[in-house]
Amino acid sequence: YDNKQTSQWTSNSIRTDWTLILERIHSTRKRGLRVLDIGCNTGELLALVPDYFKKYGVEVNKAAAEVAAARGITVYHHIEAIPAAAQFDTIILSDVIEHVTDPASFLTYLSGLLSTEGEILITTGDFENHLWRKFGASWWYCSFLEHISFISESWAAKLCESGALRVDGVARFRYIELNRIRFIADLILMTMYGIFPRAYQKIGETLKSIFGKNGDVFVRGFGISRDHIFLSLKLARNE
C-alpha cells in the first residue's frame, strides 16, 4: 500500500458508509473527543468530522499520510506507533477489516485502545448478503485480491461471545447509489461474472488488449445490492 499514490482510495462524493459513520460521530457533540481513522488515506473522511473533535489517523502510505498531516491530523504510520497509553472515543475501520488477516484478533487489540464509552465503527462487505449466497466466491466483492477477510452480523455476534465487545448498532447499505441505467448495466455484468467468472475475465482481458489497456479486469457490482454492513462495537463492560 505504500506506493506513493494518494488517489487510489479517494472518492469524488460522500459515500454511503461515510454518511453512516459521520451521523454516528455527529450524534456525540462533546468537544475534545478523540477520533482515530485506521487507513485514513489523505484524511478525506476526517476532514468532514467537526473540528471540535481531536483527529488521528493510521496510514502506511507515506505520501497519503503527508497530505493527511497537512490537514491537521495526527498521523501514525503503523498501529504499533500509537502510544501504549492512548485511548480513543471513536475508532473508524472504513473498508479496512477485509484487508486484515485475523480480524478477530485485530478488533480485540483495538478494544484495548477504546475509552470507557468508546466505540469501533466498521463498514465492509456483508458476508451474509444474497449475492454471496447466490454466487459464492464469484460475488464481485471477492474479486479484489487484497480482500482476504469477510465478516457479517452473525460473525460479530460470535466474536462478542468472548465478552470483550458488544454489538451496539447494525445497518445494511448499498456502497453507492446508482441511476437506473447504470444499475441495470452493472446488474447484468455482475450476473455474468457470477455465473461465468472465467469467461467474464477472458472477455475483459481480450477487450483490454484490443484497446491497449493494462491492469486487472474490473468486476462491476458497486451499488446493485445492499451487500455492505455498518457495525458499531462497544466495550461489553459498559452494559
Name the descriptors.
globular, 239 residues, 7-stranded mixed beta sheet, single chain, 32% helix, 7 strands, alpha/beta, 8 helices
What do these coordinates show?
This protein has 239 residues and is α/β, with parallel strands linked by helices. Helix content is 32%, strand content 21%. The chain is built from 8 helices and 7 strands. It has helices at 16-26, 44-47, 62-70, 103-111, 130-135, 153-160, 180-195, 197-210, and strands spanning 34-38, 54-58, 74-76, 88-94, 114-125, 165-173, 228-235. It has a 7-stranded mixed sheet, sandwiched between helices. Strand 2 (54-58), helix 3 and strand 3 (74-76) form a beta-alpha-beta unit. Helix 7 (180-195) crosses helix 8. The longest helix is centred in the C-terminal third of the chain and has 16 residues, at 180-195. The protein starts with 15 loop residues before the first helix and ends with a strand. The model has no long low-confidence stretch (mean pLDDT 91).
Shape: globular
* Main sheet record: 7 strands, mixed
What structural class should be given to the helix and strand makeup?
alpha/beta
Radius of gyration: 19 Å
As a percent range, the share of helical residues equals 25-40%
Q: What oligomeric arrangement do these chains adopt?
A: single chain
**Poorly predicted runs of 5 or more residues:** none
Q: Report strand %.
A: 15-25%
Strand order of the largest sheet: 3-2-1-4-5-7-6
